[in-house]
C-alpha cells in the first residue's frame, strides 16, 4: 500500500514537472515571438543591434542606421537587407542600427553610443533619422548633430543619408504640413552634402494615388509593415541608385542561428505600386526647390515659418511668404508675423 502511494506521488510529480516544463517552453516561445513588438515600441536604452561584436560581411554594402522607433518599428533595416538580397545585389546590404525610442539626433550624439558604432567599422552609408518633434521645433540642434555625425561618417569612409519621415496625423501634429519636415531634411541634407531619402514624400504620393493604402498605424505616428516596406524601397533606391521595381512583396530578415522571419508580405500589385512610387520619388527629389511650394492651412504656414526661422535663411523665409501670398493665401498678416520673428543670416 505504501509503495503504491509512493508510485502515485512520483507519477503525479513527474506529470506536474512536465506541465511546468511545457508551460515555460510556451512562455519562452511567446517571449521570443513577441520580442519584435517589445523591441519596436519598448526600447529604453541605446544599443547597437545586432550585437556590436557580430562581424559584417567584407563584401557587403555596410549601412548604419541611427534613429528611433521610426527606424526600428517593423525592423526597417531588416527590410532593407531583405530587399537587397532579393535583388541579388553584387554587394548585398548589411545593416546595423543604434536606436532609442523617441530619441533625437542630439540625444544620440550626446550619448556617444552611435559615435562609437561609427568608429568601429568602415561604413559605406550612415542613415540619420531625426525625431518627429526635433525636425519641427529643434531644427538647429538637428543640424548641429547631423554635421557632427557627418564628420565622423566621413572619417569612417561613409556617405550621410537623411531619412525624411512622414507627416504625423495625431492631434499634436495635425496642423503641421509635410512641407515642414521636407524643409528641415532638405536643408540639413544640403548642409552636409548628403543624400536625402524622401520617405515622407513617397508616402504622400502613394496615398494620393491609392487613398485606401494603410501606411500609418492607428496611433497616427508609426508605420504599418506596408508603410515600412515603402520606406525601405525609398532607402534602397536612394542608397543604391537602382530601382526596386519588380522585386517580391514578401521580405524576410535572416535571424542568426534561426529561421528567417517574414517582415512583410504584400500582394504583387501593391508591392509593384509602392516600388514605382519609391523610385519616381527618389528621382524627383534632386529637382525639388530649396523651399516648399504649398501648404494647406495658415496654421501650416505658421509652423513652416518657424522651421525656416530656425534654419535662419532669410532667402527661404522671403520666398515662403511670397509663394503663400501668390497662392491667394488669407490672413497673410498672421503668417508674416511668424516669419518676422528674430533670426540671423547664415548658419
Class from secondary-structure proportions:
alpha/beta
The quaternary structure here is single chain
- Biggest sheet overview: 6 strands, mixed
- Name of the CATH superfamily of the largest domain: SGNH hydrolase
Description:
- This protein is an alpha/beta fold and 347 residues long.
- It folds into 2 domains: 47-285, Rossmann fold (3-Layer(aba) Sandwich), CATH 3.40.50.1110; 298-339.
- Helices cover 53% and strands 12% of the residues.
- The chain contains 14 helices and 8 strands.
- It has helices at residues 2-41, 69-72, 76-86, 105-111, 113-120, 134-137, 139-155, 178-191, 199-209, 225-240, 268-285, 298-311, 314-326, 332-339, and strands at residues 47-49, 61-67, 93-99, 125-128, 159-164, 195-198, 250-253, 261-265.
- Strand 7 and strand 8 (261-265) form a beta hairpin.
- Helix 3 packs across helix 10 (225-240), helix 12 (298-311) runs antiparallel to helix 13 and helix 12 runs parallel beside helix 14 (332-339).
- The radius of gyration is 24 Å and the shape is globular.
- Residues 21-45, 289-296 and 343-347 have low confidence and may be disordered.
Features:
2 domains; single chain; two-stranded antiparallel sheet; Rossmann fold; 347 residues; six-stranded mixed β-sheet; 53% helix; 14 helices; disordered C terminus; alpha/beta
Layout of strands and helices, then pairs:
Layout: H1 2-41, E1 47-49, E2 61-67, H2 69-72, H3 76-86, E3 93-99, H4 105-111, H5 113-120, E4 125-128, H6 134-137, H7 139-155, E5 159-164, H8 178-191, E6 195-198, H9 199-209, H10 225-240, E7 250-253, E8 261-265, H11 268-285, H12 298-311, H13 314-326, H14 332-339
Parallel strand pairs: 2-3, 2-4, 4-5, 5-6
Antiparallel strand pairs: 1-3, 7-8
Helix pairs in contact: 3-10, 4-7, 8-12, 9-10, 9-11, 10-11, 12-13, 12-14, 13-14
